């Protein structure tokens, strides 16, 4: 179906599939328990998973881009990622 030639892309997609599986399982658990308190606790756990997945997938992407773009371009991409995390923490 898909011909993946780059292991970085496979890793990034695999982590996103893992993240989606965790999110889907959490949604099912929320429905299964049917209580706001429990759903809130499950959601709190998901709040830790999301940023870790984002950081890991972004790191893999940066590794894959290393050597393919100019150092100034890499610095701009890294600055963008830093700004995303600053923005998230300011909310």
> Helix segment count?
3
What is the average per-residue confidence, as pLDDT, rounded to a whole number?
A: 89
- Strand segment tally: 0
Give the class from helix and strand content and strand pairing.
Answer: mainly alpha
What does this structure look like?
The protein is mainly alpha-helical and 91 residues long. The protein has one domain (7-90). The chain is 85% helix and 0% strand. It has 3 helices and no strands. The model has no long low-confidence stretch (mean pLDDT 89).
Which key terms come to mind for this protein?
91 residues, 3 helices, mainly alpha
Could you provide a short overview of the structure?
The chain has 91 residues and is mainly alpha-helical. The chain is 85% helix and 0% strand.
Helices and strands in order:
Layout: H1 7-33, H2 36-65, H3 71-90
